[in-house]
Amino acid sequence: MTNKIKDTLKNHKYLLLSFFLPLLILEGIAIAEKIQPFGSESFLIVDALHQYLPFFADYQEKLKHMDSMFYSFHAGLGYNFLGLWAYYLASPLNLVIALVPKSMLTMVLSHLYVLKIALCCFTAAFYFRKRRGKDEISIVAFGMAYGLCSYMVGYSWNIMWMEVMMMLPLILYGVDKLIKEHDGRFYCITLFISLWCNFYMSYMTCLFLILWYLLYPHKNIKEFFLNGLRFAGYSLLSGAMAAVVLLPAYLGIMQTSSAKLDFPKQLWYGTFGNIFSRHFLGTTPLTMAVDDSKINLYCGILTLLMAGFYLAVREIRLIDKIRRLLLLVFLFFSFNMPILGYIWHGFHDQYGIPNRYAFLYIFALLAMAYEGYCVLARGQRKISMGIYTSVILFGILIETAIQTVTVKIEMKTVYTTLAAIIVYMVCFGLYQKKVLRKKIFTTLICFLFMIETVAMAVMGFQENGTVDTDDYFQDTKSITEVKKQYQKDVETRMELISGRMLDESIWHTLNGMTLFGSTAQGNVVDMMDQLGFYTGVNEYLYEGATPFTNDLFSMKYQIFRPYDTKRTEFKLKESIGNVTVYKNTDKTALAYAMDDMVKTWDYQDYNPFYVQNDLATSAFDVDELFHMIETEKPKLNNCKITSDNGDGEYVFENTSAQPDNMVFTIKSSKARQLYVHFDGSQVENTVIEKNGEQILTGRLDSQIIYLGNVQKGDVIRIKMQLKQDDVMSGVVRLTAAELDEEAMEKLAQKMQENAWKLTNAKGNQLSGTIDVQEEKMLFFSIPYDKGWNVKIDGKAVKTKALGKAFLTVKVPEGKHKITLIYVSPGFKEGAILSIVGFVIFLLLLYLFRKKKISNIQQNLTENYGTLIKEILPHDMGGNDNKEE
């Protein structure tokens, strides 16, 4: 056994090195960057901090408490957890979080990054080893060029994508086996794993696989079609096996704002130079960019030289060169054509992470380059002369890029690229002059290649930056104690008055309202915007609450930090650690019975105070909850108003950005509770002053702002700084309103009289009772979802969406027990498909095994049958002996 292990290690030493070497290098980077446990920093930047980490925290809690995977109340007033899990968290590698405490979660995820990138290097090396047919240093170099390319480094914070990049080389090896050996088992299982781990990025892989197959060098037309049937069959089978994840994920994502088809009108993004220059050595990796034409393409200068060499040498068939080139050219043009990019991204906008499918181009380029390298390594010394043609071609491309680039390009990247070319050319020259033997030459250029990619990775991670966990998670212990004391059930909702990260309330697994994520329902986002909360494309935050919406959504507690300056209508409860808890004095519930007139609710008015007034009237027969206050026209500085609708809406043009571009003044004529709301996409910063003293500043647009109890004669000034950009114009709409406290008291009383009493809550199941005097509509402050099944007194009833956003059912007169059970849409159908898919796959495994045994027996009979007959005695070899 020991000898067998030694032989395995010896025969696969470079393949193993392709994993352990980048792993050690990346851990070295982690040490240098003081990543936990070597310091307090973390690799969790951008959305990894604001989205993914909180989702991992919710997942971890479910794993440790064996809670239902279907639903969670820890975000967005409730959300389809299985749909989110399928989109973000489905990788089996993520199960490691169940083994560690929450305090170690940021550290574990940072090192999971490292592990996944190292595995990308390994799988790429595995593919190149299969292509080369031997274990050698080149597979390490080219494997690291894939795993440490600028795409991986720049986008590594998208930890849920990495398995797809990891599986791509294995899938392509599976395609080779399917076509050459008519065996699609490896292809099927690797594509299944990719689809299971992340369906969104795997969709891009599937598009790429179609192109890869169409441009594959098939033997003949017959083989093309027969293998095509196998390719399609195994692809569909892998999809069926992963259906239990794919269907919930797909149905969940189709509920988002991004699901609406909106093909781009623009024909081109930029120029050849803008894209090709991203190949240059020294190019800073992008972590995110608003400009969709931006891209990460660096994967080594030797890669480009070897790709050119592939095109230059005669040993490779012209038709094969054309096939490879067509694939690369199509992908390259896709980067610059918005409509192709839109299709590649699953008919979705790119939202700050442009050209997410660039890893496919990078691997295709590396595969082509490695074929060129193999020709060089196998061929005679004279074949290396093709490198000069490659350098000339590369030089032409560099000059074309410089001449056509329309964005600022750092010339140092050009110089370092040229320097790298010169170094490689010196190596080629020494080889051609017979100064270097082939093995030394190939080892040397591979070693230089690794130095190049490692240096770029080190630089890239330094440019990416890190986050200090001490800054972001210093209150976790205190907030955990608050949750332990006050969050008794799903009906008790609580929120941070402001978060250090967007989804921080999810990180603390509070029963909150905030949700920032790609699976946020579009209709709910729209509704929260209409009610006066801050929203984005896939987000709605607990910023913009009023006493009415706090009661409506059963918001019982607010958590303040010492630096929070926002006012609150809640009453001080106590301080725990360095946070302070405030309590809603009204009794709240998860659901309320509303008058049938709520069907006529006008929720589409641009004024959120009108929207809330109309809901209070139609649902509870309470009028004029908010009274509008007239505001004067704003004073202007380097800005002019071009249109005024007379109702607080101003169209403007500005010439520069000033802290007081627009200043609105509100003079209070009496004591009142004052609220304001304004929309202004071109507003960069806002300062609100009360009697000359600043009380609020920052991003305050697109949300209701509570200014507290103002007295007669108080002066409120709202100063807006406008953006200085290519637009320099826009619209500002401002409304001020006074809360009618008597109307609010009456409304709170009526809501309490019509409250649904929660009696049991467990995972994805709720039950409670209600007593109504007449038929009413029962409103749940839970997003509408087809996965909810509601029963009244044991009888299933039809659910409807109020305002296309919230769950409701009709309740007849009398006292009733109402139960709710949630099962994620698509789960049942997906589970059936997955079971069928696995049965078919296992049957295929059995048939292949049976065929293999049959072939062995046939070979034994053909090769040794005659010998056996000669050796065995006649009575043992005879056929006519019935006792044989």
Would you summarize the structure shown here?
With 884 residues, the protein is of the alpha+beta class.
Describe this structure in words.
Strands 13, 15, 16, 18, 21 and 23 form a six-stranded antiparallel beta sheet that branches. The protein has a five-stranded antiparallel beta sheet with strand order 14-17-22-19-20, with no helix packed on it. A five-stranded antiparallel beta sheet has the order 24-25-31-27-28, with no helix packed on it. With 884 residues, the chain is of the alpha+beta class. The radius of gyration is 32 Å and the shape is globular. It has 29 helices and 31 strands. Mean pLDDT is 93; it is low at 876-884.
> Would you tell me the structural class of the helices and strands?
alpha+beta
Question: What helical percentage do the residues reach?
Answer: 40-55%
- Strand tally: 31
Mean pLDDT: 93
Summary keywords:
48% helix; 884 residues; disordered C terminus; alpha+beta; 5-stranded antiparallel β-sheet; 6-stranded antiparallel β-sheet; 29 helices
Itemize the secondary structure elements and their pairings:
Elements: H1 2-11, H2 13-32, E1 41-42, H3 47-65, E2 71-72, E3 79-80, H4 81-88, H5 105-132, H6 137-147, H7 150-155, H8 162-181, H9 185-197, H10 199-214, H11 221-241, H12 243-253, H13 272-276, H14 301-312, H15 318-336, H16 338-344, H17 358-378, H18 386-404, H19 411-432, H20 438-464, E4 467-468, H21 469-472, H22 476-486, E5 493-496, H23 504-507, E6 515-516, H24 522-530, E7 535-536, E8 539-540, H25 547-552, E9 555-560, E10 571-576, E11 579-583, E12 591-594, H26 608-620, E13 626-629, E14 635-636, E15 639-644, E16 649-654, E17 662-667, E18 672-679, E19 683-690, E20 693-698, E21 703-710, E22 715-722, E23 729-739, H27 741-753, E24 757-762, E25 765-772, E26 776-783, E27 788-792, E28 795-797, E29 800-802, E30 806-811, E31 814-822, H28 827-871, H29 874-877
Parallel strand pairs: 5-9
Antiparallel strand pairs: 1-4, 2-3, 6-8, 7-8, 9-11, 10-11, 12-26, 13-23, 14-17, 15-16, 16-23, 17-22, 18-21, 18-23, 19-20, 19-22, 24-25, 25-31, 26-30, 27-28, 27-31, 29-30
